[in-house]
Amino acid sequence: MRLHVCAATLKGKRAGSAPFLPPPLAHVRCILCLLSRDTGIYSRESGGLHGTVGESELNKNPVEGFSAGLIDDNDLYRWEVLIIGPPDTLYEGGVFKAHLTFPKDYPLRPPKMKFITEIWHPNVDKNGDVCISILHEPGEDKYGYEKPEERWLPIHTVETIMISVISMLADPNGDSPANVDAAKEWREDRNGEFKRKVARCVRKSQETAFE
Fold this sequence. Notes:
There is one protein chain. The chain is 28% helix and 13% strand. A 4-stranded antiparallel sheet has the order 1-2-3-4. The protein is of the alpha+beta class.
């Protein structure tokens, strides 16, 4: 299955290949195209995000396992993302909803990402906020854990964010956890309590995916 941020993959024959796409995301559109068209901020001419990775590039190299759409047609800066749990991981089969909130000065600063679906993961805090390097404010890490190039850079896109989040699900970082309890279980009881809690979240996500 191939779901990604741009509407082109959901038109014509491909529309029938997206069984997990719920009605709220039936009119998925590309944030790159919308921001460029409706705000004029990130146009190809300005050398902004749309010029860096445009719709045609996303069509050539779509990211497996996610789709995204506006929460409110009148607000271009708030998006709902649907992430399919990566195969061959504990999260396989899950259908996880999250919100991406973009700042007004995007792409100079990163969006914030929050899972709406309950998820048990070392790098997602108990409120659903995602904590990964690519979403941290640009520049030096005052604690010295991250290099500047590991943090947010204006060249990052929705595509690279989603690749990082899907990678996070497949390979948690237990050394810098947002959920200390999940990280402890992942290190010490991965196939026991941690696996049971993740399985419960996967089942719950399947039950609520189309609400």
